[in-house]
Backbone:
């Protein structure tokens, strides 16, 4: 047994089995690359599943973390801090929202969004207005509220009963949403690009129709931007890529570039439904997390950052289309920005394994989609390097 295999086996023996273990042990990261304990170098197109937005060991982020850790990491959530003020200001000034609730993960941001929408509906439309519409193939997290609006609940009955009064519509089909709307509908929750569902972008016209429906029926529209937000689509916030403003957004992942921080952002009409004593979290909005979020925001809004995301996205989409034309091994390419899904004629687990041995880390989305979510600081040479590995891998697998 190698040293790496020993670490993997021992770890498996100590942890609850939530994931299938990878065959290598991760050791360190640098920019868009990660290295395992045997020193093998990988282009990191997983990035913690769309998390390491600034790449690994980003100098300014490291400096921010070490400085802030030495100054103040935690204080009771009821205290204001300069870091919390700065992060909240940056988030509000960059978006259509008026109020922020800081969380520590995607699922917590979704929980807060659902609770905020339900509380608003209770106050505004009465206690019977408690239904939520979500979408088939959705993924919103693993705590009870977010799991209840995730379609997988259908195949995980052992965790039931889930939150009642949740209905599932067809993604990109406004008639299927209209058929579920009633005077009991409190909120509609949607991923602007379905991530776990296979990297499927919403149609702009569909989101516009959802917005119009929510306005007409006084329903709260929630965008789950946990995976698609923070530059992933080539705009700071995911909704900006579609020109449709939600009432509430859930954020996390790329917001901390590896540090656990998330947020619910809300327009005042909805955010004000949460009053003292109705929601909260011990760690949410801690000075360290807020310093990180502010640093990530400053980097992402710096000159040229989003231009790079869009340029490199173009290189990847064009290169993948070329491989598709020339190899016939790619059946579909989907996504937006640096959130790219590729279906191939091969078994996804074999594709991931061969890519990994060829030096590229990626992840699976849905049943069979190769998901590419590199750091947003990827440059054109690194994008070309990834395309060479992907082309080589598909050839090798033939
Ligand atoms: N929402 C979306 C769209 C996600 O992709 C995820 C995670 O993949 C979550 C929510 C849950 O986030 P977390 O794993 O941080 O709880």
Residues:
């Amino acid at each position: 047994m190698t040293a790496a295999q020993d670490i993997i086996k021992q770890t498996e023996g100590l942890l609850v089995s939530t994931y299938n273990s990878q065959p290598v042990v991760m050791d360190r990261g640098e920019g868009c690359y990660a290295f395992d304990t045997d020193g093998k170098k990988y282009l990191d197109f997983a990035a913690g599943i769309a998390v390491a937005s600034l790449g690994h060991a980003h100098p300014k982020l490291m400096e921010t973390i070490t400085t802030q850790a030495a100054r103040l990491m935690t204080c009771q959530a009821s205290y204001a801090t300069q870091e919390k003020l700065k992060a909240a200001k940056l988030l509000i000034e960059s978006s259509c929202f008026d109020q922020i609730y800081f969380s520590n993960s995607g699922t917590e941001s979704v929980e807060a969004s659902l609770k905020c929408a339900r509380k608003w509906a209770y106050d505004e439309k009465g206690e019977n207005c408690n239904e939520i519409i979500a979408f088939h193939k959705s993924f919103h997290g693993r705590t009870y509220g977010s799991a209840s609006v995730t379609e997988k609940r259908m195949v995980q009955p052992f965790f039931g009963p889930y939150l009642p009064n949740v209905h599932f519509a067809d993604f990109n089909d406004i008639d299927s949403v209209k058929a579920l709307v009633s005077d009991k509908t409190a909120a509609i929750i949607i991923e602007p690009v379905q991530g776990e569902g296979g990297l499927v972008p919403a149609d702009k016209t569909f989101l516009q129709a959802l917005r119009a429906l929510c306005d007409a029926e006084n329903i709260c529209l929630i965008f789950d931007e946990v995976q698609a937000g923070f530059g992933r689509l080539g705009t700071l916030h995911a909704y900006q890529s579609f020109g449709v403003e939600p009432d509430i957004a859930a954020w996390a992942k790329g917001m901390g570039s590896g540090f656990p921080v998330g947020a619910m952002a809300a327009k005042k009409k909805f955010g004000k439904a949460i009053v003292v004593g109705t929601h909260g979290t011990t760690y949410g909005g801690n000075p360290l997390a807020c310093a990180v979020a502010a640093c990530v925001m400053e980097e992402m809004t710096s000159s040229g950052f989003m231009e790079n995301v869009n340029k490199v996205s173009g290189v990847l989409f064009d290169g993948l289309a070329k491989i598709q034309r020339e190899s016939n091994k790619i059946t579909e390419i989907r996504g937006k920005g640096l959130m790219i899904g590729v279906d191939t004629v091969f078994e996804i687990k074999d594709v991931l394994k061969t890519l990994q041995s060829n030096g590229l880390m990626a992840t699976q989305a849905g049943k069979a989609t190769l998901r590419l979510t590199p750091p947003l600081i990827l440059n054109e040479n690194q994008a070309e390097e990834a395309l060479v590995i992907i082309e080589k891998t598909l050839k090798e697998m033939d």
